[in-house]
Design brief:
homodimer, alpha/beta, Aspartate Aminotransferase, domain 1, Aspartate Aminotransferase, domain 2, 2 domains, 4-stranded mixed beta sheet, 13 helices, 17 strands, 17% strand, pyridoxal phosphate binding (chains A, B), PyrdxlP-dep_Trfase (chains A, B)
């Protein structure tokens, strides 16, 4: 995947020197730091589904899945503030909050998944899950999708072809399509066995986010059966689909009719506070947990747990899973209507408030350049989205879960105008 | 290192079943989660250098280096709360706070270190530093100290002999003593070269925390020269010594008269908010940063930066580096006085508010059991410390930097009583 919406310093309008803040930023942060959009957005304030830039201009946020219950949600802020004023230590002292949150989190999962460990980022959770799987299976081979992204540590970068291409993954990694075809799974398993790595885990984002958003249900089940028959486990990466985004329950794996061995989660878990976790079947976790006194300094601390619990409160109180289903369904229907008869728009697909819309060149081929043009045009009209997929041509529409019907109307009005200007 | 103060579930007084909270915790968190002390402490509140348990009992905190400017510091809480109420996004939008903080952080470092990247934990920062070093040097071999601990990801666990013994480190890792003797460094370099790994980095905690706290200055310089001559770089792990703890400036490496190539930091950086960073010489960072669009979802976000900036404010406003030097010096002097003529106490060593005190068996040998007994006895008297070192016999005294002279008096009074009861 080329990150079509991630600009290097030569892609900004006017170059980095045109804006003193961009120039200062480039100087102190270096070239790894990229910005969205040809004209980067300088945000100063947020509320619900709206963000505001330094000039006071409002943006409709149809992209950010971290502030999932809405930017600056008062209930989450209150919970964090209260705990910050009381105590913030770590898990080598006793505290109720980690126990109570864990019980609540696990109550929303299949009974087989009965223990949980905490970290600060999705990367750390996936890194931990790989180690747990390897110790349980005695194998190291991993199967991921062609465009997978599972994080930024050395170990999870090695299973993230989206970061360095399919050739850039580790020798212990095999990639398959997001369709998880029976034959390609069988071939990956055989190849890992032949190479001596064995099969440790199938790791999948259960909505196949960076592959381009593939929401078909039950795709996962046959692949999981094959991987388990070969001695491997399923690591469900719920960092993106988890916490209600798909509108079909809390977890993306539910839509596939499977119960994972390990479940990782992060991004929206605490609405922007760095909180992540790995839930597990106790018998899969045991070998690792008995041998390694894993400790994460900030993971599961009282402030993290207060924030995470407040997020669960809001998801329940504001019925955000149901909102994701309803508003997401409405948005998908409107986008499908918009796509009908437009040769520049292909498939509209998604689940809940995670929607992909293919941009084509008019002759049916993926059109990366036009997709990039569209997201920049939307930004100019005050709507934030991005792109994903192997061809960088799938509009990634992934708003906070508090997105409303009137937000849908505004979104559709702006996209209609952008697509119309494209026809000219 | 055996973690002498990290209890498995059989070590608690009465076993896990004796306390419903411990039992519930064991059930949902699993066996990787360990607690401090034979009678774990159930904390509910903190303020400055004091912590309070569920029964209202006060503890003097002489251990926790995360809440470095003191538990629940109002200036830090205010900064976090204000930013939480305003905006919390990520680094792909422009925001002043990351630029301003970076300028301020780098201004306190040698001029050669001129760029910085953000993550959420010290583990992530060290994991990143290893990747940056490998890409810069084209080598993978790493030299660490015998008892080093650099974090919990797969890659940094592989360079952390304290987690799995010296035999448990990766094949690309060689260990040396905390004295970094010329011959052992030369041997490690030669061995890495012979084995084809080459020399990528020397990674050291500049106060040698988990080796047992070795504060001698200038130890590092000859080793760094040898490593550089072999093509490697210095990664200074400042997660523990950084941000003023040694009382001799902001960074532990300064005491050694060296300028690192990469500097990692975490724990006290935001007084308990999950914030970490890796500072770098731009030329060392360039190859990685040009090729890898590293992105850390929560790293460097506006709330993290607000918390980190507030910590710098407090370190400056309350002159905490000077306090660490003065109060730490007083504490060390008192401990030395206490040790004099007591055959159960060996060397007292440290810098600033990072102090180690050896516990001996009376015949001069390290005494792990007695050290463990002392920290549990101190806990019963309301003072929190721990142990470190290969033999688990070095009392680890590492209080928040706001430790006062009256805190020293209380600490010494309690330790005097505990040592007296030992003599009987």
């Amino acid at each position: 995947m080329t990150f079509s919406n991630i600009m290097d310093s030569n892609s900004y309008q006017g170059g980095p020197g045109a804006d003193p803040l961009i120039e200062a930023r480039s100087t102190v942060l270096g070239p790894a730091y990229r910005l969205f959009y040809e004209r980067p957005v300088h945000l100063v304030r947020g509320q619900g589904t709206k963000l505001y830039d330094a000039d006071g201009r409002e943006y409709l946020d149809a992209y950010n899945n971290v502030a999932s219950v809405g930017h600056c949600h008062p209930h989450v802020i209150d919970a964090v503030t209260r705990q910050l004023n009381t105590l913030n230590t770590h898990t080598r002292y006793l505290h109720e909050s980690i126990v109570e949150y864990s019980q609540r989190l696990l109550a929303g999962m299949p009974a087989e998944i009965n223990q949980v460990m905490y970290a600060c980022t999705g990367s750390e959770a996936n890194d931990l899950a790989l180690r747990v799987a390897a110790m349980y299976t005695g194998a190291t081979g991993v199967i991921v999708t062609h465009e997978a992204y599972h994080g930024n540590t050395e170990a999870v970068t090695a299973i993230s072809p989206s970061m360095g291409g399919r050739a850039g993954v580790g020798t212990h990694v095999r990639t398959v399509s997001a369709q998880l075809g029976r034959d390609e799974i069988a071939a990956a398993i055989a190849d890992l066995q032949d190479s001596g790595h064995g099969v440790s885990a199938l790791v999948v984002d259960t909505i196949f986010s960076s592959d381009g958003i593939y929401p078909d249900p039950f795709v996962l089940a046959p692949a999981v059966a094959a991987v388990r028959a070969a001695g491997g486990v399923l690591i469900a990466d719920e960092v993106q689909p988890g916490f209600g985004r798909t509108g079909a329950g809390m977890w993306g794996f539910t839509r596939h009719g499977v119960v994972p061995d390990l479940v990782t989660m992060g991004k929206p878990m605490a609405n922007g506070m760095p909180v992540s976790a790995m839930a597990a079947r106790a018998e899969v976790l045991a070998r690792f947990a008995d041998r390694v006194p894993y400790f994460n300094t900030f993971g599961g601390n009282p402030v993290s747990m207060a924030a995470a619990a407040a997020v669960l409160d809001v998801i329940e109180d504001q019925r955000l899973i149901s909102n994701a289903a309803t508003v997401g369904g409405d948005l998908r229907a409107e986008l499908t209507r918009l796509a009908a008869g437009n040769p520049r728009v292909g498939q509209v697909r998604g689940a809940g408030l995670y929607i992909g819309m293919e941009v084509l060149d008019g002759a049916g081929a993926p059109d990366r350049e036009t997709a990039r043009w569209i997201i920049n045009a939307m930004r100019e009209r005050g709507v934030l989205i991005s792109v994903c997929g192997a061809d960088g041509n799938v509009l990634k529409i992934r708003p906070p879960l508090v997105f409303s019907m009137s937000d849908v109307d505004r979104f559709i009005a702006e996209l209609t105008a952008v697509l119309a200007s494209l026809d000219k």
